């Protein structure tokens, strides 16, 4: 069987949206920083010349990388240079920015937008509605090579470097920061991958996702 030499591509997928938002990387990151913090407390023991340590808990696992977005050819291929969300990288930027926010049916926290303001101090943090408003994270999946992780997108610093004549952004660099949801079971991640495959047209493996684009 001949080997497939096509470059596999990473992706970020928001499976809470209908339909799911799949942002496939046109260019894979050149470098990735994967940082994990753990917490230990040292204790002085009488008679010992050194400390002894015990585990107090794990800190966050943070993944950072830079994405390069390039829609120059896409913008130029649109007849007459018609501006719109399909020109340049407008949609790519919007997809990434949407992944930063919680998914909730009510973003009018405290009734501020409707003018029917209520006190936040009376909310029960264990109430289901309070959970929906304040702490329910979006379900974002990060895939790149052997990495397949449930994450939160906690930062997206976007620097637009080029605009078209219609002022559509066509080139940008995006510094991404992800926090890994380490409590997520592997089976749940695999179920998420099945959703991604279905949306992308039935890919049978992470590697085949790149073949659709």
Task: Please describe what this structure looks like.
The protein has a seven-stranded antiparallel β-sheet. The model is unreliable at 106-123 and 204-213 (pLDDT under 50). It is built from four helices and seven strands. The protein is α+β, with helices and mostly antiparallel strands and 213 residues long. It folds into two domains: 1-37 and 59-101 and 137-213, no CATH class; 103-135, no CATH class. The longest helix is centred in the last third of the chain and has 14 residues, at 186-199.
Provide a short characterization of the protein structure.
The protein is α+β, with helices and mostly antiparallel strands. 17% of the residues lie in helices and 35% in strands.
How much helix, percentage-wise, in residues?
10-25%
Strand content: 35-45%
Structural class computed from helices and strand pairing: alpha+beta
The parts where pLDDT drops under 50 for at least 5 residues are 106-123, 204-213
Number of E-type strands: 7
In order across it, which strands form the biggest sheet?
2-1-5-6-7-4-3
The sequence of SSEs as H and E is: EEEEHHHEEEH
Head-to-tail CA distance between termini: 23 Å
Report the sheet with the most strands, covering strand number, pairing sense and barrel closure. 7 strands, antiparallel
| The number of domains | 2
- Taken from the alpha-carbon principal axes, the silhouette is elongated
The chain-level mean pLDDT equals 75
Count up the helices. Answer: 4
Query: Rg to the nearest angstrom?
Result: 22 Å
